[in-house]
Amino acid sequence: MVRKERDFLGEVEVPEDVYWGVFTKRAAGNFTLSGRKARPVLIHALGRIKEAAAQVHGELGQLPANKAQAIEQAAREVAEGKFDDQFPLDAIQAGAGTPFNMNCNEVIANRALEILGRGRGDYDYIHPNNDVNKSQSSNDVIPTAIRLAVLMGNPSLDAAGLKLQESLKAKAKQYEHVVMTGRTHLQDAVPITMGQIFDAYALSIEHDRNELAHACIRVGVLGIGGTAVGTGLNTHPKFRALMVKHLAKNTGVRVTPAISPVELTSSMNAFLVYGSALEQMATTLHRISMDLQILSSGPRAGIGEIRLPEVEPGSSIMPGKINPSIAEAAEMAALQIVGRVRTAADGCRGGRLQLNVLTPLIMHNLLSAQRLAAHTCDMMRTQCIDGLSPNEERIRKHLEDGLMIATSLAPKFGYNQVSEWVKEADKRGLAIKTVILEKKVISEKELDKLLDPSKLVGPSEK
User: Fold this and answer.
1) 198, 202, 365, 377: which could form a disulfide with 169 (CB 3.0–4.6 Å)?
2) What is the CATH number of domain 402-455?
3) Which residues does residue 4 pair with via DSSP β-bridges, in sequence order?
4) Of 34, 260, 315, 419, which one is the catalytic site residue?
């Protein structure tokens, strides 16, 4: 069964059982590019905007009460995810995301008609443009929806980051007694504790979370009410302030009205700020994953100082082989996040004259990167960090064989003299202690004190 809907381009048949209409039908046929749909959080954010608009129009007496209430209820149902299956459009579509906006307008209009006991497509009574989209334009709705979606998605990312941070902190405390060989340039360096390493990881994640939270302040500035070019044409003088008020209440996120909606129709720089913070977190995740792959290398011919959880067989041909699969996946996810953030940044350069037309590109990539970052934090914590442990015997052997503990002797004997002893020990394959004792320049007791790795992991007055 079908129903016939008409726009200024002509008549189109629409399946009778769907809530979307003629605009969505045309867009679905035009844009079959990525095979990916809008993230649900974007759909829910659109619903919140339409809900707030209906509330404001009812409050200002710009819509009859029954229509305003029906639209508000329908929009709230969209925001609650009850109509996610009614948004079929490709994430990559027409400039400025007009199809997304109209898809939402049509779904809400037809659901509102249904609430009022009327048939779908009865647009003479409730119209997608005239009523649901009243006082709005895709040019202010879509950027606002992306901002709200980012703000609504950030708590999940923050929670995942916090749990990872706490897991790293717990490992730092658990193994603070373990002194390891430090490494710079992938070469042996002075000692460091496992506690110091993992505490630093935790601090990096904390910094990343703080940067994301700070970026949300900028993202929370909304241009809704600016309509087509930011000037507010076809809106009530109180519309913009009331929209921000209702959006804050309906979403629970911190939002403020833009000083200049004109700026926010063409400038998407707030997403550059948030994307930069996301890239910072991705860089931290990449660094940690790389470190764990190196430190767990082996088990016999590598460094092998960290044991990672064994989550799956590592080879289809080599029996018994185990790989750092979770750390490898985290590395790839981190690079994917960076790629999506940089594509979103290119989208932010799509401002031309009074409009940025690349908002669908920004939306698709930034929200995907945000979600991937949250999942990566969760995976790293549950599948890797929580279950890792040090190979203390291997760590101790590397310390005993290491040469860079001789750095502690430089203040007493001088850099050049100690360098000669280090080169000699390396050439002869001896421990640095053995070579120095042969020189008879220091007692064994005093030398042991100077070379004690546990005393070489922080400042000293001597």
Assistant:
1) 202
2) 1.10.40.30
3) 13
4) 315
- Record the tokens describing residue 134, joined without a space: 């009243």
Which region holds residue 135: left if phi is over 0, alpha if psi is between -120 and 50, else beta?
Answer: left
Bridge partner residues of 352 (DSSP): 355
Average pLDDT on 287-302 reads 97
What are the structure tokens assigned to 9, written together?
Answer: 């381009």
How far is 123 from 6, CA to CA, in rounded Å?
A: 10
In CATH, what is the architecture of 154-392? Up-down Bundle (1.20)
Helix (H, G, I), strand (E, B) or coil at 192: strand
Dist CA 408 CA 339 (whole Å): 44
pTM greater than 0.85 (yes/no):
yes
Give Cβ neighbours of residue 396 (< 8 Å, ≥ 6 apart).
Answer: none
Residues of the chain with CATH 1.20.200.10: 154-392
Query: Residues of CATH 1.10.275.10 domain(s) within the chain?
Result: 2-134
What amino acid occupies position 418?
V
The SS3 call for residue 6 is strand
The H-or-E segment that residue 284 falls in is: helix 269-295
Up-side HSE of residue 354: CA atoms within 13 Å toward CB? 11
Asked if 60 contacts 240 with a C-beta cutoff of 8 angstroms, the reply is: no
Query: Which residues are bridge partners to 389 per DSSP?
Result: 307
pLDDT band at 462 (very low <50, low <70, confident <90, very high): low
Cα–Cα distance measured from residue 80 to residue 378, given in angstroms and rounded to the nearest whole number:
25
Confidence bin at 460 (pLDDT 50/70/90): confident
Question: Using an 8 Å Cβ cutoff, are 101 and 142 in contact?
Answer: yes
Both tokens of residue 180? 């390891």
DSSP assignment of 313-375: ---SSSTT----HHHHHHHHHHHHHHHHHHHHHHHHTTEETTEE--HHHHHHHHHHHHHHHHH
Share of the chain above pLDDT 70, in %: 100
Question: What residue type is 459 in one-letter code?
Answer: P
CATH 3.60.130.10 assigned to 2-134: no
CB of 23 closer than 8 Å to CB of 7: yes
CB 251 within 8 A of CB 48: yes
Q: Which residues pair with 307 in a beta bridge?
A: 389
Q: What is the DSSP letter of 257?
A: E
Q: Which helix (H) or strand (E) holds 423?
A: helix 415-428
Tell me where in the chain the CATH 1.10.40.30 domain(s) lie: 402-455
